[in-house]
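Let's do one together. I've listed all components of the complex below, 1026 residues spread over three lines.
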Amino acid sequence: MSFLIPPVDLVILLPALAIPVLAFVTNYRLGAALNVLFSGLTLAAGVSLLFAERIRTDLIIIDDFNIYLVTLTTFVGFTTSIFSASYIGHELETGRLTPTFLRFYHAMYQAMMVAMNVALVANNVGLMWVGVEVATLSTVMMVGIYRTPEAIEAAWKYFILGSVGIALAFFGTILVYLIAQEVIGEGLPAMAWDTLVANAAKFDAPLLSLAFVFLLVGYGTKVGLAPFHAWLPDAHAEGPTPISAVLSGLLLNVALYALLRFKIVMTGNAATLNVGAIMIVLGLVSLIFAGFMLYRRRDIKRLFAYSSIEHMGIATFAFGMGGPLANFAGLLHMTMHSLTKSAIFFAVGHVAQVKGTQRIAEIGGLSASHPVLAVGFALGAIAIAGLPPFGVFASEFLLVSSTFARAPLLTILLVIGLLISFGALVLRLQDILFGEPKGPVGPVKASYVPLFFHLALVLIAGLWLPEPIVQWFRAVAQQLG
Amino acid sequence: MALTLDLVLQVALQAVQMFLVVLIAPLVLGVTRRVKARIHRRIGPPLMQPYRDLWKLLHKEAVLAHNASWLYRVAPYFVFATTWVAAALVPTYATGLLFSWSADLIALVALLGTARFMLALAGMDIGTAFGGIGASREMMIASLAEPAMLLIVFTVALVAGTTQLSEIAATFVHKSVGLRVSLGLAMFALVFVAVAENARIPIDNPATHLELTMVHEAMVLEYSGRHLAMIEAAAALKLVLYFSLIICLFLPFGMATGEKTAAALTIGIGAYLVKVLVLAALLPIGETSVAKMRVFRYPVFLGGAFAAAALAVFLLFVSRGF
Amino acid sequence: MDKLSFDIAHLLAGSMLVLSFLLLYQDRITAVLNVFALQAIALSLSVAWQSVAQGAPHLIVTALIALIVKGFIIPTALHRIVRRLEIHRGVEQVIGGGPVMLTGLGLVALSILLVQPIKEGASILTREDLAFALAVILLGLLMMITRRNAVTQIVGFMSLENGLVLAATGAKGMPLVVEVSVAFSIIIAFTVFGIFVFRIRERFDTVDVGALDRFRGEQRDQL
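Okay, and this is what the predicted structure of the assembly comes out as:
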């Protein structure tokens, strides 16, 4: 099918257009509605990408890898905008946000969507970098939006650490360009993914390894791998919950996508250092570290922030292991985590709003006071803890079995990490759901549709993965080597 | 016959260099003081005043403390001798002189270090408080400046391939070394080290006698008569030595490097004198534009020199390999 | 001519490195801002020279952007911010002058070692320039770590970005679109920072980022 305007351009142009519109709309309800509208249109563009012809220019590329990620991103962006619309009403009432801030917030939201889409569809490594940087900057602004000391500290820390990471990633990008330029020649082709992959075997191996180290540290900071994770818990806890959902669900994925693109280039060259081993180590460290940290968390959003670190660790581990099964598991995990974590944050956002606090000690007896919300929250927590029949269980099981076949000792570590976090989550779940209701028990104007829709998707994926998706994942797993 | 004539000529040329530095040292001091005075809108002492001062001191009685040891009496001569030897070795107007083979940069640093050591000991010999302060401060400055100096030596030696000053000068004149960053950094560092070693502002004020601000003057406070003359002459010689070093390493054009013809030698001497006098005029301009630093800031100042020299060494490993 | 152009490129990049060192131990904020402006000017000269040496006219655009934005606009804006915040008179505590300088030297050595694997390929300028650029980046990072004041931390970040631009221009043929987007994102980053400094000041009555430490998640009741 051919479109009037290529969907690729739409996916970028629509949010870009939304930014000035939303910046000037003064009525917050209209602003929220427009936010949802634009996100919905972007989603439509993202879905139509699936049916449009594949494009490849020096700046933009649509291939197997990013096509489903774009769809996922626009989808989660859309559902989060719906959640955000119901969330901000309450924030305005309690006075945590003012209408001026809201205009800003909506504009930044769309700015972030633009940047993420640009990063995903870019064929040019530099352009991708710019996308990740602008996305980081817009989320920094949003994390600090409440202007409390904690929020400002969280945003500042995120800004500094994110900027340092991004700067190192840029240096890695330049090194990659230098290496490519000797083989491919100057100019744009030396920065395009497909040409890089095609010529990977001719690149200078030690230099490529050096470049990857920079890229790993740089983009790894944005993925939230330990020990570069320091910004993540605070940024999730202090920002508005829709931002936590988007950070966990989308930005971490985009950063991981960037890393994986580079990994594909690396695997094309046999003489480079064993990036798989490094990724395995980082993944395991993140997993086990986050698992232990989960036990001491007293703040609900911080709890799930560490859970994000853990799951990104699992995904990194999967991609580090490599091979068709592990890569498939990693891709599936990325998708499932994105959907589940954002669903959890949808629930958590409303819980925190109704209880007026984020401390777990002050939230209790949710099943008695808000049954629907409790069900949604429980399902989400169970899903992220890795219980069947949800999709996260499917990806983790696939990973464990494929790792066991190749490296039994690593499996032990992997399973230990999974069990540790499982225990912590179940404990906290009990604290929150059962017992006497604590705190305010009034009704909450929640949007349950995004929450349950996400959970339904995760459930379906756990039971039956549609054939086209399987094909996609397989094709990308092949590319990842 | 020809051999002896040649030998006589060589000796003469070397002697010319040796006496040249001694003779112009007070003049350099005079120029420095006069330019400084002019900048301060004073008239200043006549250019020949340092000569007259030395003459006066040589004729005065040298008063010694009761508890002065042999060290105290020997030190001025020793300091003068070592400084003179060091200054005489640095190529001024020509390279490849008779004793140039001994003009090793590291030996130079060692000679200066020995002189400083003797002076510090002499300062502590009588047991006055000023002597102690001066000696300790001098040693602190030395402990910071010497590493920087050695790194400068390494930089220059790495570029030229030898530590022998005469050959370094010849290399720099003939081979196009280019505008190397490392040499720029080394020059920067050497200027700082020179300021520190010669007790110039911002490290030390040569015209002061306030206890808080003295370093070199504190060590030699008790000296008088011919001993003081020796020490003052040594200080002037040290200044000329550093000027010659800067000229030889970084501004070596005009030196007579090849055939020692009369024309080349004249040009060499003329160029050298001009350069020294220009540097002597620039020094007070620099001194007047900054204030004297407090003692605890010395490590920052000299640390900067050290960092610049270290950077220069590192960079040599980058630019065009060794 | 080739050697001369090579030497001049080194000289300019080397001056940027020296200025990075200077940035490390300055303790007056106005001095820090002035040295940063100097470094930006050195950067624009370096990029302009690269444009001449590589025969890449589009680099002049980058040089102009660096000069105008980072050499002029950003320092002026920072000076005004500093005056508004009234911190221009204070003397800032720099964490450890001596050890920091030594660490800086170590980082320079490290960056030289790291770029050794680059073969002296077609563009000879590349290896040394990359070493300088990486050194400037690492020194900017060091400055960010060792500073207690939000404004000077950001100057450290900006000098890190100077190193990035130097690295980008050293790579022959980097397309203009990339460089312009990079410059653009730097401007945005700076704007974000500017907004933040005022928020920090408004909330904490100081721009000493040590005051932020009390609100770190890990410090508050084991959250």
